[in-house]
Design goal:
Number of strands: 21
Distance between the termini: 50 Å
Helix content: 40-55%
C-alpha cells in the first residue's frame, strides 16, 4: 500500500474518530434540529450565503464519511431553505458527497479487493459496464436501500466517476424532494418514521420498478425494430414450437429437451446424426487412442512382468475397429431413437429465410418449408485449413476425413506430418507414432498445448518424444512441394528453411464454426468467427438462438450440451423466465498419455488475470494404485485462494486424469473446498485417492502451528 493510501486512511479514521469521540452526532438528531430551527432561520436571514455554504460543506462531509445524519441534514435543509432551494442545495451536496465516498472506496479498497476476488469481479464488472448506470438509477429511486452502502460498493467497480455522479444526481432527486418537503413541516415531525408512510414507501417502490418496466418496453421496441422488415411475413400460427438446425451435441440435446416437455420440435441434419463428436472427433479419436495404447503396452510388456512384444496387427483392422465403435454408438444419436422420443427428424440442408421460417432442401430432392416460434442454430464446426501454398498439390487429411481416407490404406503412412500442436494434433500424433508411423509434429508457437502451464507443455512434449514423435516447436510451415511422388513441406526455424519429406499430411490447426449457407448473412446476423449471442444465447433476433461451436466461446461437446439446455428452456419458456448461460466451471481434457485435464484457472491464467493464489501439488508417483498399475507419473495441482481452501482451478496430469477431474468440477460448481474433499472417504486402492492426498497436502501446509505447540504441551502434561 502506497503512502497516499495510508495517508488518506489515517485522515478518514481521524475524522471518524473525532465524530464519535466528540459526540458530534448529537448535532445531527431530530430533537436538536427542531430546537435550533428558529436560530438557524434568523442566522440565515442575516447571512444567507455563509449559512448555505456552511450547510453545503457539512452535508458533503457527512455523506463523504458515510456517518449517520444525512436524513436529518436533508430535513434541516427543508426547514432552513424551503422546498425549492432546499432541494437544489441538498441535491448537489448529496451527489458530491456520495461521489467523494465513491472515490475514497475506489482509491483505498478497490485494488486489494480486485487482487483477492479478481476472477469473480470480472463478470460483475462486465455487467456494470453494460448496465450499471441503469441499476444504479433504480437503486437510487428506492430509499429502502442505504445510499452510503451503494456509494461504497460502486466505488469497488469500474463505473466511470461522471456516470456515477450524473446518475446519482438524477436518481436521488425524488427522495431528496420528499425529505426536504417534510423538513418544511419540521415542527409536526415526531420521528423519521413519520416521513415514509407505507403509502409513500409503496410509491417509491413503484418508482423503482418503473425503470425495469421501461426497460422491458425498450426491449420490446428494440425487438419490433429488428423484426420491422420481416413483420409482414410473421405467421399468425406456427408449424413448430422449435426448429433445430444441426444434429450434433447441441442440436440433439436441444431437440430432446423440447420433446421431453411436449413441444412440437423438428431437428434438421444434412449429413450424419451425432455430428462431429460421434463421426469425426471424440469417438473415433478415443477408439484410435485405445488401440495405440494397447500396442504401446505390448511393446513395453516388461513393465508388467511380461515380455516386450512387437504387436502384429493390420492397419485396416485398426481403422475398421474405429468404424465399428462409431456404428455401436450410432443408435444413441440415430433418427430412429429421436423419432421415438417425439422429435421430427428431417435430413437435408436448412436455410433460415426469415426469423420464423426455415426452408429445407431435403436429401431426397424435395423441399419443405416450416415455421417455428423459435429456432436454434447448432451447426457445429469444421477443420480450419491454412492457406499454405502447395497444400492442395501434396494432398492432406483433416480430423474429419482421415477416418475414411486412412481406412482405405493397407498400411499406416510411413512418414506422417501433423500440422498443429493443440489437443487434436497431440492426440493423433502420439497415437499414430505408437502404431508405427514416423511422425513429425509441426507447431509454430514455442510450445505445444499452449493453453496449459509451461510444465504441462513440457511433460506433454516429453511424452510424445518418448513415443517417437519428432516435436518441432517454433517451426513455421511455409509451403508444400511435390516433385514426382516425393512430397515435401518446407518450414522455417530460427531463420533457416528446413525441408521435410512425408507420405501423408494431417492438418490439425484448429476448427472454425460452420456459419455459411444457413441464411444468417441475409438476416443481418454477423458471421465472422461465431454467431454473436447475449447471455441467454439469443442472437439479434430474440427468437433465434445459437448453441455449441457456432456460439463459442468453447469448442467442447460437453459445453455444447450445456448450452443446449439454456437454448431449449429459454426458447420455450423465456416468456416466463430466461436463464443466463453459466460458464463458471468448464472442464476439459486432452487424451494423450498421460492425460491432461483441467478446470478453472491454471498458473498462467492466474498470473495473466492478476489473481493471487497458492499452489498445492501432489505427485501421482506416490500413489499406491498408480504404482500397482505401472502408471506412477504425473501430478495433481490445485490453485486455491491464499489462506483458504477455496478452489480456483485444478490441473491433473496422469492416467485417467479426465475422470479424476470430475470430483473437483463438482466441488467448484457447488462451492466445496479442499477440506470437504479431504473429509470424503475414497475407496482404496483407487486413482481417485490422488484427489484426497492433494487435499491432505494443502491441509499440512496450513496446520495451526501455534495451536499444535500447545497441544503437544498438553500431551506432555498428561504424561506427567
Amino acid at each position: 500500500m502506497n503512502k497516499k493510501k495510508i495517508g488518506l486512511i489515517v485522515v478518514l479514521l481521524a475524522l471518524l474518530a473525532a465524530f464519535f469521540v466528540l459526540d458530534l452526532g448529537r448535532y445531527l438528531s431530530l430533537d436538536y434540529i427542531k430546537s435550533s430551527q428558529s436560530a438557524f432561520e434568523s442566522i440565515y436571514a442575516e447571512k444567507p450565503l455563509i449559512v448555505a455554504g456552511t450547510y453545503f460543506a457539512i452535508y458533503v462531509a457527512v455523506t463523504a464519511l458515510s456517518v449517520p445524519g444525512a436524513a436529518i441534514m436533508t430535513l434541516a435543509g427543508g426547514a432552513i431553505f424551503g422546498t425549492l432551494w432546499g432541494t437544489v442545495i441538498v441535491s448537489f451536496a448529496s451527489s458530491l458527497g456520495a461521489t467523494l465516498a465513491f472515490l475514497a472506496a475506489r482509491f483505498v479498497l478497490r485494488d486489494s479487493i480486485e487482487a483477492r476476488f479478481g476472477a469473480r469481479l470480472t463478470e460483475f464488472n462486465k455487467g456494470v459496464e453494460k448496465e450499471g448506470a441503469f441499476y444504479l438509477f433504480t437503486l437510487r429511486l428506492v430509499p429502502l436501500v442505504p445510499f452510503f452502502v451503494i456509494n461504497l460498493l460502486m466505488g469497488l467497480t469500474k463505473m466511470k466517476t461522471l456516470t456515477f455522479y450524473g446518475v446519482s444526481q438524477l436518481g436521488m432527486l425524488a427522495g431528496t424532494a420528499v425529505y426536504v418537503n417534510a423538513g418544511t413541516q419540521l415542527a409536526q415531525l415526531e420521528s423519521l418514521k413519520g416521513i415514509l408512510s407505507p403509502g409513500l414507501i409503496g410509491s417509491f417502490v413503484l418508482l423503482g420498478i418503473f425503470p425495469l418496466l421501461a426497460r422491458k418496453v425498450t426491449e420490446a421496441l428494440k425487438g419490433r425494430k429488428v423484426y420491422a422488415r420481416w413483420a409482414h411475413l410473421k405467421p399468425k400460427s406456427f408449424d413448430r414450437n422449435l426448429i433445430v438446425i444441426g444434429a450434433g451435441a447441441g442440436g440433439l440435446v436441444s431437440a430432446y429437451i423440447a420433446a421431453a416437455v411436449k413441444a412440437k420440435v423438428t431437428l434438421i441434419e444434412a449429413h450424419k446424426m451425432g455430428g462431429d463428436c460421434l463421426n469425426y472427433g471424440c469417438v473415433p479419436s478415443k477408439a484410435l487412442i485405445k488401440s495405440a495404447k494397447l500396442a504401446h503396452q505390448m511393446k513395453h510388456g516388461a513393465r508388467y512382468g511380461l515380455s516386450d512384444t512387437t504387436p502384429s496387427f493390420s492397419f485396416k483392422g485398426v481403422m475398421q475397429r474405429i468404424h465399428d465403435v462409431i456404428a455401436a454408438i450410432e443408435p444413441h444419436d440415430s433418427v430412429e431413437r429421436y423419432t421415438s422420443l417425439g422429435v421430427e427428424v428431417l435430413q437435408g440442408y436448412a436455410k433460415i429465410v426469415n426469423p420464423w421460417t426455415v426452408e429445407i432442401a431435403l436429401n431426397d430432392g424435395s423441399k419443405q418449408v416450416l415455421t417455428g416460434r423459435a429456432i436454434v442454430i447448432a451447426a457445429g464446426a469444421r477443420p480450419f485449413v491454412p492457406p499454405l501454398p502447395g497444400l492442395d498439390d501434396v494432398g492432406y487429411v483433416t480430423s474429419d476425413n482421415l477416418w475414411d481416407e486412412f481406412a482405405k490404406m493397407d498400411d499406416i503412412p510411413k512418414r506422417l506430418v501433423v500440422l498443429g500442436g493443440g489437443p487434436i494434433g497431440c492426440e493423433l500424433a502420439q497415437s499414430f507414432a505408437r502404431l508405427g508411423a514416423q511422425v513429425m509434429q509441426i507447431e509454430m508457437a514455442p510450445r505445444i498445448m499452449g493453453r496449459e502451464d509451461e510444465e504441462v507443455s513440457a511433460l506433454a512434449k516429453a511424452a510424445l518424444q518418448a513415443d517417437g514423435v519428432q516435436v518441432l516447436t517454433g517451426h513455421k510451415a511455409l509451403r508444400c512441394e511435390k516433385v514426382g511422388d516425393v512430397k515435401t513441406i518446407i518450414v522455417e526455424h530460427e531463420g533457416q528453411e528446413i525441408r521435410l519429406e512425408f507420405d501423408a499430411l494431417l492438418c490439425a490447426v484448429g476448427r472454425v464454426a460452420r456459419l455459411t449457407g444457413y441464411g444468417l448473412e441475409e438476416l443481418g446476423i454477423e458471421t465472422q468467427r461465431t454467431v454473436p449471442t447475449n447471455e441467454y444465447l439469443q442472437t439479434i433476433y430474440p427468437n433465434i438462438y445459437a448453441a455449441g461451436d457456432v456460439a463459442g466461446p468453447y469448442q467442447f461437446t460437453h459445453v455444447a450440451s450445456h448450452q443446449a439446455w439454456y437454448t431449449a428452456v429459454n426458447a420455450l419458456f423465456g416468456d416466463f423466465k430466461k436463464f443466463k448461460a453459466d460458464y463458471r466451471v468448464i472442464p476439459w481434457a486432452t487424451f494423450i498419455d498421460p492425460e491432461v485435464a483441467r478446470v478453472g484457472l491454471n498458473e498462467t491464467d492466474a498470473q495473466e488475470k492478476n489473481v493471487p493464489y497458492e499452489v498445492t501439488k501432489y505427485g501421482i508417483d506416490d500413489l499406491d494404485r498408480a504404482i500397482a498399475d505401472s502408471e506412477a507419473h504425473g501430478f495433481v495441482k490445485v490453485l486455491t485462494v491464499p489462506g483458504k481452501d477455496t478452489i480456483l482451478g485444478v490441473t491433473i496430469v496422469g492416467t485417467h486424469a479426465g475422470d479424476l477431474l470430475a470430483e473437483y468440477v463438482l466441488a467448484m460448481k457447488h462451492g466445496l473446498g479442499l477440506n470437504k474433499i479431504l473429509g470424503t472417504i475414497h475407496t482404496y486402492p483407487t486413482l481417485a485417492e490422488a484427489n484426497k492426498y492433494a487435499a491432505g497436502e494443502w491441509k499440512r501446509a496450513h496446520q495451526p502451528k501455534k495451536l499444535l505447540e500447545w497441544v503437544a504441551k498438553y500431551h506432555d502434561w498428561k504424561r506427567g
